[in-house]
Amino acid sequence: MPPETTLTAAPAGETATPPETVVSGTLLGGAPVPEQVIIDKTPAPDDWRSSLPDDLKADPFLGRYKSQEEALRGVAAAQKTISAGLLKKPGADAKPEDIARYRESIGVPKDVAGYDIKAEDLGLDADALEAFKPILLKHGIPADAAKGLIADYALREQARLDQVQQGWVGEIAEWKNQIGPSKFARASTAAFRFAEQMAEDSGLGWDTVKGFLDTSRLGDHPILFRLMATAGERMLEDGIIHGDDPANAPDIVAAKIKAIRDDPKHPFNLEGHPGHKKAVDEVLALTQQMLGKEGKRVVSVI
């Protein structure tokens, strides 16, 4: 073991001998000593979390503190609170201040503004999401948990709707096989012309009706499609509306493409949307259909 060292003050008038130099924890005289502990007193940067790992930098709990000392005091206070049992879920007869303390401790925001969830990022209806936020607040859902739940719900709902729509498209395809491509082309034109005419006659306008059909996906519903096709066929026969084979009606295809491009909520305009690639392929096919008659070939859709 290294010899003990006793530090004493130098006699009056004498200069104290400086302590031995330490190199890698060993005195130059050869006797081993514990390594020096150097305390870095360099001021922390403006954002004290800058040196932390990325997951801690983004942690909302730490984000509420302005300095490392404040964060450590907060952690210490939280530990005392946990030890005292104050984080237990308040009972039915709990005081309002106890309930507020508990909600804050688990990350429940004070108001709906604390739920930073963007409907457009998830392909959700903005009005519906805003109406749902007070419900999240009512039931004490923490902000992080709410964001994760809504995101997971959006993905599941999108997958469900895609599956339902594919089922409808399959039924329409089966009907097409039954009546043949030629009759189906005329039925498609008749259905479109009927919907367009009724939209104008009712004062709603085609854009409004088209938006409803796209958002609800009812434009692909086999029952509604066949009803509109039948009504359109009769109106074509009576001369009330006119129509041609869709392959020879570029105005119809152009209207479909424009409606898709002008709809900010359409998957075509949302690169992160699960249905984006499918929507791009759809617009590419429609564009090819519109231009193919003139001998043009579509390379890509921007």
Description:
This protein has 302 residues and is mainly alpha-helical. Among the domains are: 51-106, no CATH class; 158-292, no CATH class. 55% of the residues lie in helices and 1% in strands. The chain has a two-stranded antiparallel sheet with strand order 1-2. Helix 7 (143-179) packs across helix 8, helix 8 packs across helix 10 (222-237) and helix 11 (250-262) runs antiparallel to helix 12. The relative contact order is 0.05. Mean pLDDT is 76; it is low at 4-8, 18-33, 39-44 and 293-302.
What can be said about this structure in brief?
55% of the residues lie in helices and 1% in strands.
Task: Please supply descriptive tags for the structure shown above.
single chain; mainly alpha; two-stranded antiparallel ribbon; 12 helices; 2 strands
| Poorly predicted runs of 5 or more residues | 4-8, 18-33, 39-44, 293-302
N-to-C SSE string, H for helix and E for strand = EEHHHHHHHHHHHH
Beta-strand percentage range: under 5%
DSSP helix fraction: 40-55%
pLDDT average, as an integer? 76
What Rg, in angstroms, do the CA atoms define? 35 Å
Q: Give the class from helix and strand content and strand pairing.
A: mainly alpha
Number of strands: 2
Terminus-to-terminus distance: 77 Å
The major β-sheet equals:
2 strands, antiparallel
Number of helices: 12
- Shape field: elongated
Biggest sheet strand line-up: 1-2
